[in-house]
Amino acid sequence: MREARSSRGREMLRRWLRRVEHGRRMQAAADLEAWLASLAFVLETCSEAHRPLGAETDIGTTLDRVDRELMRFRNHSADIRPRLRRASPVLGEAVRRLTDDTFHLRNHTHAYLLRWQSWRRQTGYASSASIDSRREMEEALLRASETARSLRADLATFSPQIHELIDAWSVEG
Fold first, then answer.
1. Is 139 domain-assigned?
2. Which domain holds residue 98?
């Protein structure tokens, strides 16, 4: 009788642990999916900012949208990092690099937008300061564009593996 109770207790514990683990996998899948969506949003928003800007462009809106999304992105990254490291160290390292590169993209894009704004204020003047300002703006745009291109290529490389892991974590089990 005692063995039967002990056996039932162990089985109940196993079922409970399976449910807890399943919940953790589902949450990890949701976090990884949210991380991927945030990265895509930041990449697209920054890439749009690299296109020719009109005279009426408000860079504050772009800067604010990117920074708000990066706060969510940072949280998703922190949530998935431990589980990802255990599940796939190679993919965990790739996600860490993609996360770092996304912040670099933000910084380069912000630098470009601020230099663009400075250059716009000086466009009426034919001075060496205006020429220097334009050169600095174009250099910042080049850095931002190169970072976006590199991030897009790396994302394309690892995106199938990330989606496979999301699918694996999302299945019932």
1. yes
2. 25-170
Q: Tell me whether residue 133 is in a domain.
A: yes
Q: Give pLDDT, residue 148.
A: 97
CATH no. for residue 89?
1.20.120
Q: Give the confidence band of 122 by pLDDT, cuts at 50, 70, 90.
A: confident
Query: At CB < 8 A and 24+ separation, what contacts does 28-31 make?
Result: 28/79, 28/80, 28/83, 28/84, 28/169, 29/165, 29/166, 29/167, 29/169, 29/170, 31/76, 31/79, 31/80
What pLDDT score was predicted for residue 1? 60
**For the chain, how many structural domains are there in total?**
1
* Of the candidate ranges 13-22, 55-64, 117-126, 138-147, the one whose mean pLDDT is the lowest: 117-126
